[in-house]
Amino acid sequence: MYECLYNKSVVWSRHTGGVQVILGDASVRFISENINLQLWRNLVWINDGEVIGEF
Question: Where are the domains of the chain?
């Protein structure tokens, strides 16, 4: 389970090892529970102006 400290939202899943997420282009990806915390924060915060490449 990850907690986004910016907007106080919590993401959780019953999938072992991570979570399934849907992206703005309607694609679905599995995000590992071992993802870098800063990358995770950048992915869930939409108004920070960051451009994120492939992950």
Answer: 2-44
